[in-house]
């Protein structure tokens, strides 16, 4: 699984590569008891489906209160500069504002919200995953990205909207997330089981 194009619901050992909705909730709950900067970092990862490096690069001006979204600079576009806007719940924006003093410190709008290295950010996310009782390939920032896309598919959000939010160049990449086992697949299987 070197890139999103290689997404499969399970790795070669049969381990799930994304979190379930309940596991995502446990991660967010564990994040709420962490340091406020760690909490907001984890929230943005979970609510945007952004890559860990994309979240590390967010600045004050990346947060758009009027559109109620986070503007993310895509990092996998080679020489092109591409931004995507991902809508987030109001509570996420208010929490970001409270912790990072977004609206009162707008004179420094290009200031990064987190100044950690990629390794430090990864370690902080790993600690929150462990605190939530989660481990394995799905308990990573990449797992959170996959979780975002799988959850969006399972909620019936159109693939072209998910493609936009994820920053995928091709809809085929986004369509791979429809292969994950979800509630709809369980409902279909239950209909079949009733005939056995």
Rg (CA only): 17 Å
* Count, helices: 9
Q: How confident is the prediction overall: mean pLDDT? A: 89
CATH architecture annotation name: Orthogonal Bundle
Shape: globular
User: What share of the residues does DSSP label as strand, in percent?
Assistant: 5-15%
Largest β-sheet summary: 3 strands, antiparallel
CATH superfamily heading = Intergrase catalytic core
CATH fold descriptor: hpI Integrase, Chain A
Count of the separate structural domains: 1
Strand order of the largest sheet: 1-2-3
**What letter string, H or E per element, gives the SSE order?**
HHHEEEHHHHHH
CATH class division: Mainly Alpha
Low-confidence segments: 1-5
- How many strand elements? 3
Give the % helix: 40-55%
Structural class: mainly alpha
Ordered list of secondary-structure elements with their pairings:
Blueprint: H1 21-32, H2 36-48, H3 52-56, E1 63-64, E2 69-73, E3 83-87, H4 90-100, H5 118-131, H6 141-154, H7 159-166, H8 171-175, H9 183-193
Structural account:
- By secondary structure, the protein is mainly α.
- It has a single domain (4-193), classed as hpI Integrase, Chain A, CATH 1.10.443.
- It is 47% helix and 6% strand.
- The chain has 9 helices and 3 strands; from the N terminus they run H-H-H-E-E-E-H-H-H-H-H-H.
- It has a 3-stranded antiparallel beta sheet with strand order 1-2-3.
- A hairpin with a 4-residue loop joins strand 1 and strand 2 (69-73).
- Helix 1 packs antiparallel against helix 2 (36-48) and helix 2 (36-48) runs antiparallel to helix 4 (90-100).
- The radius of gyration is 17 Å and the shape is globular.
- The termini are far apart.
- Mean pLDDT is 89; it is low at 1-5.
- It holds the Pfam family Phage_integrase.
- Belongs to the 'phage' integrase family.
- This is Tyrosine-type recombinase/integrase.
């Amino acid at each position: 699984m070197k890139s999103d194009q290689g997404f499969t619901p399970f790795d070669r050992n049969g381990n799930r590569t994304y979190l379930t909705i309940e596991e995502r909730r446990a991660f967010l709950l564990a994040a709420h008891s962490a340091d406020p900067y760690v909490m907001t970092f984890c929230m943005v990862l979970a609510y945007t489906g952004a890559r860990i490096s994309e979240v590390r690069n967010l600045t004050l001006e990346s947060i758009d209160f009027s559109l109620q979204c986070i503007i993310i600079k895509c990092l996998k576009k080679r020489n092109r500069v591409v931004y995507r806007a991902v809508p987030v719940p109001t509570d996420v924006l208010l929490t970001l504002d409270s912790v990072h003093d977004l609206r009162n410190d707008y004179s420094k709008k290009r200031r990064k919200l987190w100044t950690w290295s990629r390794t430090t950010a990864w370690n902080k996310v790993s600690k929150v995953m462990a605190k939530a009782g989660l481990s394995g390939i799905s308990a990573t920032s990449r797992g959170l990205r996959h979780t975002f896309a799988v959850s969006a598919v399972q909620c019936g959000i159109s693939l072209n909207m998910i493609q936009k939010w994820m920053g995928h160049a091709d809809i085929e990449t986004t369509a791979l997330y429809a292969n994950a086992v979800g509630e709809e697949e369980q409902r279909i299987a239950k209909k079949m089981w009733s005939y056995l």
